[in-house]
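Subject: Protein record for review, amino acid sequence with backbone structure tokens
How to read it: Take the token row as a discrete description of the fold.
Enclosed: The protein record, placed directly beneath this head.
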Amino acid sequence: MPHFAEGIARFQREVFPAKAGLFARLATVHRPGTLFIGCSDARVVPELITQTDPGELFVIRNAGNLVPAHTPGADGVTASVEYAVAVLGVRDIVVCGHSACGAMTALAEGHDLSAAPAVAAWLRHADASLARATAGGTADVAVLVRENVAAQLANLATHPSVARALAAGEVRLHGWVFDIADGTVEELPAAARPALAA
């Protein structure tokens, strides 16, 4: 991990001084405008893709960029969504899937996940996506990635804080697919998003 120490030193020496004013403000103000829900895949870096400064994105990352439908009780995704919408007042929520997603590949190809039971249980939140993607036979990973983004947007709308903000016109939902190989970001059409978000 020596490269981390070198990176931190370079940040403190070269990057931080140029953004000292921004960090001084961020030390007392936290007002991101967008909640970005993406995959924990190391190749998908929200701030790099969107070229945003610190403080602009509130980020949730997990395997498969999944958002469980709202249920009673708390979990990390639900708590983070609620905090972003109800406390921070984000105006936009992006669910971003990506090409070559390991989680979606495992589902599409029916990988044996018995050695990773927590992963298998977590990926059950993509069951609806898989069912839609395999309606005509076997699932294509690219199709499943898109279906999964649409399904997670629908799940977001089940969260009370999001439903209230959508009904009041205070938040907009966006579905993106990032292509790792060519760097493009495709926004899913409104038809692929929940009715309240259109």
Remarks:
- The chain has a mean pLDDT of 94.
